[in-house]
Amino acid sequence: MLPLEAVLNGSLNMIGYGLATLGPGLGVAWIFSSVINGTARQPEARGAMLSTAWIGFAVVEALAIIGIALAFVIQ
């Protein structure tokens, strides 16, 4: 049986990570909504905007992956 502190700390880590997923989720939504708006305004620039969006998406998701790794490491 685990002591109460260990169970409580593990639970708080997962709650913290759950709250931290809001940032990357909003970031991805804003990135692609900006691409959709930009494409609607200037369709010929779609390729340039989309390639930049994929780079931004990768950076935002990398931060989310680092966050879940830290949530499991700092138990």
UniProtKB/TrEMBL annotation:
InterPro entries from the UniProt entry: ATP_synth_csu_bac/chlpt, ATP_synth_F0_csu, ATP_synth_F0_csu_DDCD_BS, ATP_synth_F0_csu_sf, ATPase_proteolipid_c-like_dom, F/V-ATP_Csub_sf
Domain V-ATPase proteolipid subunit C-like: 15-74
Membrane topology: Multi-pass membrane protein
Predominant place of localization: membrane
Residue ranges of the TM segments: 12-32, 53-74
Keyword field contains Transcription: no
Protein keywords: ATP synthesis, Cell membrane, CF(0), Hydrogen ion transport, Ion transport, Lipid-binding, Membrane, Transmembrane, Transmembrane helix, Transport
Gene Ontology terms: cellular component: plasma membrane; proton-transporting ATP synthase complex; proton-transporting two-sector ATPase complex, proton-transporting domain
CDD domains in the cross-refs: ATP-synt_Fo_c
Function: F(1)F(0) ATP synthase produces ATP from ADP in the presence of a proton or sodium gradient. F-type ATPases consist of two structural domains, F(1) containing the extramembraneous catalytic core and F(0) containing the membrane proton channel, linked together by a central stalk and a peripheral stalk. During catalysis, ATP synthesis in the catalytic domain of F(1) is coupled via a rotary mechanism of the central stalk subunits to proton translocation. Key component of the F(0) channel; it plays a direct role in translocation across the membrane. A homomeric c-ring of between 10-14 subunits forms the central stalk rotor element with the F(1) delta and epsilon subunits.
Residues at the site labelled Reversibly protonated during proton transport: E61
Protein's UniProt keywords contain Secreted: no
Protein's recorded name: ATP synthase subunit c
GO molecular function: lipid binding; proton-transporting ATP synthase activity, rotational mechanism
Record localization: Cell membrane; Membrane
Family that this chain belongs to: Belongs to the ATPase C chain family.
